[in-house]
Design brief:
CATH architecture of the largest domain in chain A: 3-Layer(aba) Sandwich
Strand content of chain A: 5-15%
Oligomer: heterodimer
CATH topology of the largest domain in chain A: D-Maltodextrin-Binding Protein, domain 2
Order of helices and strands of chain B: HHHEEHHHHHHHHHHHHH
Shape of chain B: flat
Number of strands of chain B: 2
Number of helices of chain A: 19
Distance between the termini of chain A: 51 Å
CATH superfamily of the largest domain in chain A: Periplasmic binding protein-like II
Number of helices of chain B: 16
CATH class of chain B: Mainly Alpha
Largest sheet of chain A: 6 strands, mixed
Number of domains of chain B: 1
CATH superfamily of chain B: MetI-like
Chain lengths: 469, 316
């Protein structure tokens, strides 16, 4: 029996004992349940009673090795939890189908959503409050607090982070070399980013820096850059949210973009770049020198034809009073229509599927081997979701299957323990990003764009939407 | 109804008329193919009812509600409409949509008419010309939009910029500039859709009696006068109808700006349907999305009614 199995078993016993009216240990959890206002939050349940759950994220048939590992893991889970019947489906996050699934009642009991959307789902009460279940669990309650807070609001927990990364500077090591820059020394400041962009354009003729600017992504990146330049986009005082867009940090960030575009002429000529296009085509083709993005893009870039050795990942450069960087990753949520028993069973699956690899060497190796066989990246730089020592052991176990040149990312990896992760704007985050897209586009397409005016207008617009909600 | 009652009365002068009357009606209805009509009608009724009318009804209700699709929806009166009208982007999106429609009328309306008139004059190559014009229609919209996005590549080596360079012009920013973005999208939309409209015009042209042209030729009318005095008057009803359809269609433009520009630069190509999409799928606010949909539907209905009333005399 692995460490995690022992934890699962002991927890089941505790809950069962608690339901029998005994153990004081479960009282905090029961108390938390009684105050929960989410559907199913006040039910008591027998954790050993038969229950059926559906789980998303089943690998598709083209990922043969990963699918086999998934099915093996499912069989192991069912053996360890004979009372839980799991219906696995390939459902993945898609903003266009999520609401339809919620309305139709076909949302899996648990599925993965990206960090960027969890706060909006919490705001709309479309995910289950699992505070008490997480607090009562000896593993889930130990998720890295910096990562866990991504799925928290007002002291309540609405999801379990299963993987995390931070936004950083992605650069093309080959273009760095061609421009006479040291690919092992990513820029630490924005000034260096600007000068490196100019050098790349001058020496290679290729744009030295870019960011996508459409479909809320321009706003997302401007927010990331503003954090690194010392300003939040939104503040909160009790129940009152205030848009703080017209700040020194945002101005400094736009000034950086202005310099690269107009002073250095190193931004290229596409100022309406789409995120998917940037990740799947533009950057992998080696057309750009630097970009802001999440460290997890490594896998996608390589899949789309970029050489792994050409991918450079550095920490997000920090300006004056830099607050840190924005985080990204995957959160496991529970359907808002799930009963408490289903939520409990689903969280057991989430632990088994996403966290057991940090406790079970055999499973860790099996997962890594399957991913490598399917041609997926193994060892992508990420923020440990559990404590550092567990993550180090895990990396040691899968060392033979690592196909990511982690030695290229040493500076980035070192920053993970020092650079704070700043959450996304909690209130009307997507609306805020949408209001910032045109601001970024204006700076890139009009040399006379008035940054102060643009930010002031965006701030007024976003505040109006916050107030109207 | 009149004939039915007359027949019934004459056949049952003294007896209890109602049951026999009903039986007679039903029997006649069956004999006249009522059951087969009903069998054909039910699938249509079900399909339209379930997939069109019911969603429209639900939209009406949803526009008055606040819902997260999980808990019971709350009726909020006209709050969704108020929030839509307070959206700072609504004015820009409305103007952009109207601007697209105007440009589509100016660029997109005459092109298929002229093409159809030209092709109608052809003898041997009419079929080939028609097929060539129709080819863009069979290309999936997203594919053709992505194709044109490549054509509009702002780099000097972009296809249109390369062509422009042959004449010593450019490079042009095309979609990257607030002034040229919308006209660029309209040109693509015209290319993609004119074949279908042209085929309809061509069909209308083919129905014009040949004697009219023969008489005009005898009177010495050239091609321009023939087109002006015979062709256009003969197909005016089709033209007016197509203009209305085109206007309704262009007011609902979505795919082209979404794929080409994402609404940029600086919201210069955000349209009303893109706003509805953002409300529903980015913000998850179905109340606002259905409220704006309803406003758009009402406005289009009113504009259509005014248009039909204003052009009734001419179309007759």
């Amino acid at each position: 029996m692995s460490n995690l199995d022992a934890l699962f078993t002991s927890r089941r016993r505790l809950l069962a004992a608690g339901l029998g009216g005994g153990a004081l240990l479960v009282l905090p959890a029961v108390a938390a349940c009684s105050t929960s206002s989410t559907p199913g939050g006040e039910e008591s349940f027998d954790p050993e009673a038969p229950v059926t759950i559906s789980v998303g994220g089943k690998p598709t048939a083209d990922q043969a090795a990963s699918l086999k590992t998934f099915n093996d893991q499912l069989a192991q889970f069912t053996t360890a939890h004979p009372n839980i019947t799991v219906n696995a489906e390939e459902t993945k996050w898609d903003a266009q189908t999520f609401n339809a699934m919620v309305a139709a009642g076909t949302l899996p009991t648990t599925m993965t959503v990206p960090f960027t959307d969890i706060q909006a789902l919490i705001e709309r009460e479309q995910v289950l409050d699992i505070t008490s279940l997480v607090a009562a669990d000896s593993v889930l309650s130990k998720v890295n607090p910096d990562v866990a807070k991504i799925a928290q609001r007002d002291g309540k927990t609405y999801g379990v982070a299963s993987s995390a990364y931070t936004m950083g500077l992605i650069y093309n090591r080959a273009l760095y070399t061609a421009a006479g820059l040291d690919p092992d020394k990513p820029p630490a400041t924005w000034d260096e980013v600007v000068s490196n962009a100019a050098a790349i354009t001058q020496k290679t003729g290729k744009p030295g820096f870019t960011i996508p600017t459409t479909n809320n992504v321009g706003g997302w990146y401007l927010t990331t850059m503003s954090y690194s330049n010392g300003s939040l986009m939104e503040t909160r005082d009790g129940e009152k949210f205030t848009a703080t867009i017209n700040t020194d940090g945002a101005k400094a960030s736009l000034e950086i973009l202005r310099q690269i575009r107009w002073d250095k002429n190193a931004f290229g000529s596409n100022f309406l770049l789409d995120l998917t296009e940037a990740r799947s085509k533009i950057f992998p083709s080696g057309a750009y020198g630097q970009a802001v993005d999440g460290a997890d893009v490594y896998g996608g870039l390589v899949t789309n034809g970029m050489k792994g050795d050409d991918v450079g990942i550095g920490p997000l450069p920090q300006g004056t009073g830099g607050l840190g960087t924005l985080g990204g990753g995957a959160v496991q949520i529970i359907s808002p229509k799930a009963s408490r028993a289903e939520a409990f069973a689903a969280l057991e699956w989430v632990k088994f599927r996403t966290l057991q690899k940090y406790f079970d060497q055999e499973l860790a190796i099996s997962n890594a081997k399957a991913a490598a066989e399917d041609g997926r990246a193994v060892g992508v730089p990420e923020v440990p979701v559990l404590e550092e020592s567990l993550y180090s052991s895990y990396l040691e176990w899968i060392k033979p299957y690592l196909n990511v040149p982690r030695e290229h990312f040493e500076v980035y990896l070192a920053s993970l323990s020092t650079l704070p992760i700043v959450p996304e704007p909690a209130k009307k985050g997507q609306e805020l990003y949408a209001s910032l897209d045109p601001v970024v586009q204006a700076v890139l397409t009009r040399q006379d764009a008035n940054i102060e005016e643009l930010l002031a207008k965006a701030e007024t617009d976003v505040q109006a939407q916050i107030d109207a909600s | 109804m009149t004939s039915t009652s007359e027949v019934s009365t004459s056949s049952t002068p003294t007896g209890p008329s109602v049951p026999r009357d009903t039986t007679g009606r039903v029997g006649r209805w069956v004999r006249r193919g009522g059951i087969s009509t009903l069998i054909f009608f039910i699938p249509v009724l079900f399909t339209y009812g379930y997939f069109a009318w019911w969603p429209i009804l639900r939209s009406l209700v949803l526009s008055l509600q606040k819902t997260n699709l999980v808990t019971e929806p709350k009726f909020v009166g006209l709050d969704n409409f108020t929030r839509v009208l307070a959206d700072p982007l609504l004015g820009q999106a409305t103007w952009n949509t109207v601007w697209f429609t105007i440009l589509a009328m100016v660029i997109g309306f005459p092109v298929p008419v002229m093409f159809a008139v030209f092709v109608a004059e052809l003898r041997r190559t009419r079929q080939i010309a028609s097929v060539l014009a129709y080819i863009p229609v069979i290309i999936p919209p997203v594919v053709s939009v992505l194709l044109w996005k490549e054509f509009y590549n702002p780099e000097p080596h972009g296809i249109f910029n390369t062509i422009a360079s042959w004449f010593g012009a450019g490079p042009f920013p095309w979609l990257q500039d607030g002034n040229s973005a919308m006209p660029s999208i309209v040109v693509q939309a015209t290319w993609a859709g004119f074949g279908q409209t042209a085929i309809i015009y061509l069909a209308a042209l083919m129905s014009i009696r040949a004697e009219l042209y023969e008489a005009a030729e005898i009177d010495g009318a050239g091609i321009v006068r023939r087109a002006w005095h015979i062709t256009l008057p003969q197909i005016r009803f089709v033209m007016l109808f197509m203009l209305l359809l085109q206007m309704i269609g262009t007011m609902q433009v979505f795919t082209e700006p979404t794929v080409m520009t994402g609404g940029g630069p600086e919201n210069k190509t955000v349209t009303l349907l893109m706003l509805i999409y953002r409300y529903a799928f980015i913000q998850g606010d179905y109340g606002k999305a259905t409220a704006l949909s309803l406003i758009l539907a009402v406005v289009l209905s009113i504009v259509s009614a005014i248009y039909l009333a204003a052009t009734r005399k001419w179309s007759n």
